[in-house]
Amino acid sequence: MKKIDGHLHLVRAIAGFNGKGRLTPLGDGRAVWDDGTVIKLIPDGSGDDSFTAEAALDIMAKSDIEKAVVLQGSLNGYQNYYTYQAIKKYPDKFIGAFSVDPFSEFYMDIVKRYVDDLGFRAIKFEISQGGGMHGYHYDTPFRLDTNPRIGKIMHFISDYPGFVVTVDYGNYEQFSYQPEAIANLAKMYPNIDFVVCHLSFPNADHPDRLRAALAQWQPYENIYTDISAIQDIEDETVFPFPRCQQDVKIAKEMLGAKRIIWGTDSPWSATFNTYNELATWLESTDIFTEEEYADVMYNNALRIYFKPTAVAAIANANDPVVKD
């Protein structure tokens, strides 16, 4: 069975930043936030203070993962340019999204560089209060569907049919949580695909909360969800993760298998459960038919992220500032 990791992070240099301050590497895969919180960011054997493309390919190969979608996040710090370098070096293995802080002065210059000059056809908004922009823009809460700066980005990328907008908005307790904004954006921009990370942060003890979020997306075929890191969210470390199975059954019930994308959220998630466990847990369930399983594990990510136009755009890009 072919597989694509639909949610992976590369870390050339740890540069995390969120409400806890700056993340500084300590070696041995560990790092410390400015508030003193120490985390294990990189699994043993995959790097002391980085998770390179080569390290990712090694861990992927051991679990028979063919390709990966490289996303950005405040936890690692935006790795935009390194993602571009990795895609150019391994075009058959990686595609990716870039990120930008829309509250920075030159945010549109950054957007235009990564889209027009470097050929990216996906953008990631890490807006969660717990780990993203709402944590370090705490005094200025914003919505994706009404903020004029984000609107300017949306107007720009709408010129590129099939562009992907990937969003992590945290859990329902955070004021960044806004599943209804995804529905509004999908209606406003039908030529853009939207992927919500982490299955809208489910809790198996509150299944109707997840159903309420997913119900808002049902009418819009351009909304998808990835199921990465739901083990971390459910605090599950016992394979094959029965609470996560309940969550994914609801996702299938509400959206169907063709709108679910498997992913791991490695490297961090691979420090709680092994990468191989994250890669194989669905095989131990009867949630999907064989055809549906192929969609979730491979076909959906291939169709959404690895569009021929997206692959060609980066392949044909030639950075006018920093030569490859």
From TrEMBL:
Gene3D superfamilies: Metal-dependent hydrolases. Keywords: Lyase. It comes from the Bacteria. Signal peptide: none annotated. InterPro entries: ACMSD (IPR032465), Amidohydro-rel (IPR006680), Metal_Hydrolase (IPR032466). GO terms for molecular function: carboxy-lyase activity; hydrolase activity. Residues 4-306 form the Amidohydrolase-related domain. This is Amidohydrolase-related domain-containing protein. It comes from Weissella bombi.
